[in-house]
Target: HSF-type DNA-binding domain-containing protein
Amino acid sequence: MKRSQIKNEYAEEDPCLEENVENGEEMPIISVVVNPDSPQNINALSSNVPLFIKKLWIIVNDESNKEIISWNSSGDGFEMHDQLGFISQTLPKYFKHNQLSSFVRQLNLYGFHKSQSIERDEFQFTHPFFLKDVPQLLPLIKRKVPSGRSQSTKPTPNENSPHAPIVQELVGTIKNITDKSDAIATDMSKLRQENAALWREMNTLRLKYSKQTKIINKLIHFLIAYMQKHHNSRKGGRTSM
Model:
């Protein structure tokens, strides 16, 4: 199935378009001069997409940000390459703050999963509906509903649509991939911890070996000195006789 076949008809109206509110203030819509058909155009996105998700989509797709934040190689998440640059340049450009913790908290509220690259000191965030070149899925990203609140706003595809089975299958496949990715990330984290423990143990053994070697060398020197002294004393006694 082509990504372009996924239609906005599966998006449900979002009652909370004033998302990403910090300290009770609504974050302003940014002003960016772009091609009307490009993914950086905030007005080209569905009105059912939460404001924070719109801004996130624009940030990740903006080529001028690629040294700081960009899609990962598989296109199923984005990577933050330069945290300091993101704090000092990107956040103030799109939001009224430069607090990375607030940005990450918003990602958590929308169900993004955070992981860290083993090869590089970079953070990666993934969401089953936040995929490169598939803005049609963005309306399905919803803010987590606190316990006790109604779950009636949960987005579901239009069952009468001829594409509904395909979309449901796609959503199920994405969820399975996400679950497997989370399991792999957990295993990798355990391996890193075990590897760190092995290194600590090896370092402790190396220190013990070094201390024991020094003690053995001191004993050898002491024995050699003692034997030489004893030999010289015996030799001197024979000479006097």
